[in-house]
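Q: How would the structure tokens look for this protein?
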Amino acid sequence: MRRTPIIALAAMAMLPATSKIASAHTGVGDIGGFAHGFWHPIGGVDHVLAMVMIGLFAAHLGGRALYLVPAAFASVMAIGGAVGSAGIPIPFVELGIGLSIVVLGTAVALGFRTVIAVAMALVGFFGLFHGYAHGAEMPETVAGLAYGAGFIIATALLHSCGLALGLIAASKVGPRGETLVRAAGALTAVAGVAFVTGII
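A: Here is the predicted structure in token form.
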């Protein structure tokens, strides 16, 4: 068994630990629109977990899901961001974000398989809440398009981390890699329950 893929898996699995435990929430200090938008998703562990799980979920489904599932999330997230920045209320945003972590983590943990359209609808539904949180908390002092571009690019990078983790696990590590991915999904689901219940 090669050590390099296992080290890569472990390193990517540690990514959420680099984020602050926050619930979708604005960055710190006086930074420009793009930078603020870029760091916003990365600054909240709830967002990081959900987006990495989407990458893992897409990798598990394979084929066209590798790009269609993350694209569905990003597209609806952009719509949610526009709604949030316009000040249009959407109920249960924090609950939707928390449940996204529970549902996506559970899907990864169980190795859930479904048709691409259903997977796209599922992640798109949760993308609305994540996007709304980003848009609603966009500072008035930053440029909206630059901010939006930043958080979409950051989201794509987080999806890519999940995709890479899933593809490495499937092609390089074998059964141990699949076990590690499923364990990451299970731990993520537990973290999601903690978010929903307010424990963290």
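The chain has one domain: 34-197.

The two ends are 37 Å apart (CA to CA).

Upvote if useful.
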